[in-house]
Design a protein that fits this description.
Blueprint (H helix, E strand, L loop, with lengths): L1 E5 L8 H14 L4 E6 L4 H5 L10 H4 L7 E5 L2 E4 L5 H7 L9 H9 L10 E6 L5 H9 L2 E6 L7 H16 L1 E2 L4 E2 L4 E9 L4 H10 L5 E6 L2 H4 L8 H5 L2 H24 L1
Parallel strand pairs: 1-5, 1-6, 2-4, 2-5, 6-9, 9-10
Antiparallel strand pairs: 3-4, 7-8
Length: about 260
């Protein structure tokens, strides 16, 4: 099983869109995917039209029983987000184990929830480095963070890297002195437009950065997929859309394949 967290310090970078479409693509490749929505905006949960305000991720952070794994469709399950998660984070701020709650929940429920059935757990976080995001980072194999050609877009990368380093240093096994954080922090150039100066300048920088593994072109079709609640993988199955957007579909298929080979 691979656990991949989509995280960002800056909002509006296409994080949820990327998490959603990558998870859907993996499912279409016959991998079994569990989404965990740790964003209190719950956009991922809304995409799948899950209306659950009782058995959500909130119970993980409240140490309560009753976290439900919703079956969405073939190869895709979801643990719903909770609009009150930010308030819960504030209330547990002084708890010693606040950053290890998801780690403990996975350990305690691995057998009862049959978590070994999943090839991938995909976690979508709020654009910050809060308690929920730290919980996700600690259990992850890989962190994927989008970078966009916007003001302060690339500088947000250094912000995340510094916070990641700090978490790695402070989250240790006190017996061995080894960090419990062993995830790789990787970046994705996103919403890249070849005809704008900002995109060209960003591309020049990204080409020299080994931690940036792919660059995704800006396409309204991709950006709107979450609004339309229709993944790119679903669009690929439509013959008319395949005829019209086949070149972009093939490009995105190669991009997601490259991500998979790097995580």
């Amino acid at each position: 099983m691979k656990i991949i967290t989509f995280a960002a310090i800056k909002g509006g970078v296409g994080k949820t869109t990327l998490a959603y479409n990558y998870g859907e693509w993996l499912a279409n490749q016959n991998s079994k995917v569990l989404f965990i929505d740790l964003d209190h905006q719950s956009n991922l949960t809304q995409i799948y039209q899950i209306y659950d305000n009782k058995y959500t991720v909130a119970n993980i952070f409240l140490k309560k029983e009753g976290v439900q794994i919703h079956h969405i469709k073939k190869n895709i399950d979801l643990i719903a987000g909770d609009m009150h998660l930010d308030s819960i984070e504030a209330n547990i701020q002084t708890k010693v184990d606040k950053n290890m709650l998801l780690y403990m929940w996975l350990a305690d429920n691995y057998d009862s929830k049959k978590l070994d059935q999943y090839d991938y757990i995909i976690i979508d976080c709020h654009p910050d480095f809060s308690i929920a995001t730290k919980n996700a980072v600690i259990i992850s194999d890989d962190i994927l963070s989008p970078i966009t050609p916007s003001e302060h877009g690339y500088s947000a990368k250094f912000n995340l890297e510094e916070r990641f380093r700090e978490l790695k240093q402070e989250t240790i096994d006190y017996r061995t002195r080894q960090s419990l954080v062993d995830a790789k922090l990787l970046f994705v150039g996103n919403m890249i437009k070849n005809n704008t100066r900002s995109s060209r300048e960003l591309l020049d920088v990204l080409q020299k950065d080994a931690s940036v593994i792919v660059k995704i072109p800006n396409r309204e079709l991709f950006n709107r997929s979450t609004l339309d609640k229709l993944s790119i993988s679903s669009m690929m199955a439509d013959k008319k859309m395949q005829y019209k957007y086949g070149k972009f579909f093939n490009e995105l298929n190669d991009i997601f394949s490259h991500i998979t080979s790097n995580v």
